[in-house]
Write a structure and sequence with these properties.
Elements lengths: L1 E4 L5 H11 L6 H10 L1 E7 L2 E11 L2 E9 L8 H13 L5 E7 L3 H9 L3 E11 L6 E10 L1
Parallel strand pairs: 4-5
Antiparallel strand pairs: 1-2, 2-3, 3-4, 5-7, 6-7
The structure holds coenzyme A.
Length: about 140
């Protein structure tokens, strides 16, 4: 198992994960821009892409933009390892790492809490839902370094 920079060759597999785990999936363009302008990492088991994380750093602040693990690999520690690798990479260069998460995403909230994130705010109606008339709130979470 290795964590390595995302490359164009990974995008088809990354899109498959994204589409199977997100209600508002990013397009291939979102991932191409991430490769060019942000930091994007994939978690691979031999040639199989198990998951990915995308984040960006501006001065001493960083933001987690996207993280997902293939449905068949969820609950096996991949998300935790990806998050730990990201934190390790950023450690010493940032003061704060922030993210948004759906209020209903208990699994992700639990994961972030385990890695030192605390809730610092809420964004009303931040996310789309399957029902085009309904929006879902986001929690804003932060980890200080
Ligand atoms: C959220 C996500 C990235 C977590 O990755 P994962 O590989 O499944 O998580 P891990 O196996 O590393 O587990 C880490 C922690 O997450 C939580 N967790 C994982 N699976 C869980 C489940 N089925 N129920 C409740 N909590 C769960 C637990 O706190 C777990 O720690 P523990 O094993 O000590 O109990 C993954 O479930 C996912 O891709 N979800 C869909 C996309 C998504 O929601 N992304 C986050 C957007 S903000």
């Amino acid at each position: 198992m290795i964590i390595t920079p995302m490359q164009r060759a990974h995008i088809a597999a990354v899109l498959e994960i994204e589409r199977s785990t997100s209600l508002a999936p990013w397009s291939d363009r979102g991932f191409l821009e991430s490769i060019e302008h942000h930091r994007a990492r994939v978690y691979c088991d031999a040639d199989y892409v198990c998951g990915f994380v995308v984040y960006r750093q501006t001065a001493d602040q960083a933001e987690l933009l996207n993280i997902a693990i293939a449905p068949g690999r969820q609950g096996t520690g991949c998300g935790s390892r990806l998050l730990r690798a990201m934190i390790y990479e950023l450690c010493g260069t940032i003061r704060q790492l922030s993210l948004e998460v759906r209020v209903s995403n208990f699994r992700a909230i639990r994961l972030y809490q385990q890695h030192g994130f605390i809730q610092v705010g809420e964004r009303r109606g931040y996310y789309p839902t399957a029902d085009e008339h309904l929006r879902e709130d986001a929690l804003v979470m932060c980890r200080e370094f």
